[in-house]
């Protein structure tokens, strides 16, 4: 059966796409749409048209799998121009998510009706692109440049209600009566001149107030730093005000093609599929019966435990949080409430939502209250003996069939599981701090972790808005294990003469939010310090003894001013020089290129070892971990994809040049001229 069919409802032709899973606008769908319009135009009994989709969503965009291959006619622009050109009114009937090309289809229709739960957006920017089927030209003409900018440049979808408020949706219709309501709406438009988005005039706001674009750039500077597509998006929306529609579409086309053939979009498209691939667990049927998680227990109400708990509360899952001391429990619950209230103050939650989430929280001082939880996550002190004690105790209290998880960031899950009588129900759930915000969840698969336990954790991660990847049991799992060699090289290089601020700047220039020494200042140089100023064995001991505890005291590796701007500190240079002299390290100038190679190549090498040992299922999972947990710049695609673009032979040569070890898998791939991804 064809993916696009038509149905006649008296004088209305309904064009229906059925291209699961998300009605992506592949070649057959584009042709079907064009044929549908032709059918409507050639049939005198038809007076109006409705375009809708079967399945879970309206068109979710162009078919990304077709990108990079020769495009079959009609291209999306051509297909949807025919919708707009129709002299019979065309109504888009929207449910699910009208995204990217799907939103452009809706824009080319003369009218848009949507169910209340629908969302609309132009997320191309998240693929390193801008809309390429005239979306940047039609949207501002319908809603104005000011409302179009965030949609094109930031790419977050908006609700049907918001779309209605800005004029993108003409009518909100019944959640369960989309087709009938759309047909009725279409009938009302018969005989009226169809309004065409390409002829809209709302874009004039950008001409009246050209400062709009610079203001937008400034306001979103941090969010779009390093990315090429947002600037192209701003230029395209600006062009919608300055140029004729036809010239604007041409300009959009040029910008689109440049991005499409560039490295950033390739990297971001890789990431799109990587994130989805990471959900798949080798050897486990995705349809396996899951363990229902109706109630979650958290052990430890500190920063980590509280943050972890918030994920579940926000998703509407009741949480019992246990601490040993009343004061710590109260403090922990207070922090959770405060975090929610701050979110509400920023307008991202209502008061009712705050109270709703808090009402699902049960604070307790007794392990016994965890007995009926379906999943208990331990977030106590990072020490094997403590963890073992806790797990033995939990095993005796928590009901059989419940999952016991540790939030450890590097300890051996198998050893922890060994103290329980249910090792198959034990796994690691490594959240990243702040756990209510950071996207990444490393799911650590123990030797005996059962398939349904693992898949339950994976599905749950999506429910709480995390991006998850599975790791095997090894020290530091995927993320921290790869951080180690980078940190090690950073420390070695500053003893060899590299400026520590150069080390930070190299990573900043690469696209990381901060470098290791800035990070140390932010976290607190004194974390884990023995607090004896007389005992100076390491650089950190020396900094702490000198009162340089980090940003919180205004000085650490850097001196900080009131605005928290950093400047390298003479005192620190001196301390480093003394340490280097004591260690007999020869000082030399180290170039930024060398710094970059010595920071990043060993990470790739460690990634290769992780793959070699089967600790990650696939190279792209490593990219997912580093992008979501450690700020690796998305537009490079993650460490393994980036290494592919650098050329694995170059990575190997660089490692050898700097006297660093080369993993077998990396060496083999480089020799074979192959890649980690693809
Ligand atoms: C564009 O439109 C450019 C145009 O302006 C111009 C062109 C000239 N193509 O995410 P899910 C697959 S750019 C191909 O797990 P959810 C996905 O890989 C596009 N495949 O479901 C997955 O496959 P698998 C702009 C796609 O319910 C399966 O569908 N549009 C596409 O969590 C299910 O996806 C976007 O960027 C696609 N466009 O979320 C929207 N989309 O099962 C991208 C999905 O094998 N899509 N797949 O792993 C999304 O944001 C989400 O998929 C969506 C559903 C919200 C729709």
From TrEMBL:
Keyword NAD belongs to the record: yes
Cellular compartment(s): Peroxisome
Residue stretches making up the 3-hydroxyacyl-CoA dehydrogenase C-terminal domain: 476-560, 597-656
Reactions catalysed: a (3S)-3-hydroxyacyl-CoA + NAD(+) = a 3-oxoacyl-CoA + NADH + H(+)
All copies of domain 3-hydroxyacyl-CoA dehydrogenase NAD binding, residue ranges: 295-470
Pathway: Lipid metabolism; fatty acid beta-oxidation
Domain of life per record: Bacteria
A Pfam family annotated for this UniProt entry: ECH_1
Annotated InterPro entries: 3-OHacyl-CoA_DH_NAD-bd (IPR006176), 3HC_DH_C (IPR006108), 6-PGluconate_DH-like_C_sf (IPR008927), ClpP/crotonase-like_dom_sf (IPR029045), Enoyl-CoA_hyd/isom_CS (IPR018376), Enoyl-CoA_hydra/iso (IPR001753), NAD(P)-bd_dom_sf (IPR036291)
Keyword terms of this UniProt record: Fatty acid metabolism, Isomerase, Lipid degradation, Lipid metabolism, Lyase, Multifunctional enzyme, NAD, Oxidoreductase, Peroxisome
Family: In the N-terminal section; belongs to the enoyl-CoA hydratase/isomerase family. Belongs to the enoyl-CoA hydratase/isomerase family.
Subunit description: Monomer.
Entry protein name: 3-hydroxyacyl-CoA dehydrogenase NAD-binding domain-containing protein
Native source organism of the sequence: Parasphingorhabdus litoris
UniProt lineage: Bacteria, Pseudomonadati, Pseudomonadota, Alphaproteobacteria, Sphingomonadales
